[in-house]
Amino acid sequence: MTLNLDPNIPDPDGFYDELLAAHQGLSKADSDALNARLILVLANHVGDRDVLRAALAAAQRQVVSTQ
C-alpha cells in the first residue's frame, strides 16, 4: 500500500468543522492531547508501519518546506 496524498475525504470542510468543534473549549494542553490521541487512533487503524513512516516523512517535509 502506498501513501495517498490526494484529497480523499468526502466533505473535507465538514470534517474540518467537526475537528474544530472537538477542540472547542479545550486548553492548549488538552487540545494537544486530543491531537496526539487522534493521531494514535488513526495510526492504529492504518496499522501499516511503512505507510505510517511515509506519512511521517510527508508531514515533516511539509513542515520543513514552510519554514
List the helices and strands and how they pair.
Elements: H1 12-23, H2 28-46, H3 49-65
Describe this structure as you would to a colleague.
- By secondary structure, the chain is mainly alpha-helical.
- It has a domain at 27-67.
- It has helices at residues 12-23, 28-46, 49-65.
Summarize the structure in short.
The protein is an all-alpha fold and 67 residues long. 72% of the residues lie in helices and 0% in strands.
Q: List the total number of helices.
A: 3
Task: Determine the fraction of residues in helical runs and give it as a percent range.
Answer: over 70%
User: What's the overall geometry?
Assistant: globular
Mean pLDDT: 94
* Residue fraction in strands: under 5%
> What oligomeric state do the depicted chains represent?
single chain
First-to-last CA distance: 30 Å
**Largest sheet at a glance?**
none
Structure summary, number of beta strands: 0
Radius of gyration, CA atoms, in whole angstroms:
14 Å
The helix/strand class is mainly alpha
Which residue ranges are poorly predicted, with pLDDT under 50 across at least 5 consecutive positions?
Answer: none
| Element order: H for helix, E for strand | HHH
Write a concise keyword list for the protein shown above.
mainly alpha; about 0% strand; single chain; about 70 residues; about 70% helix
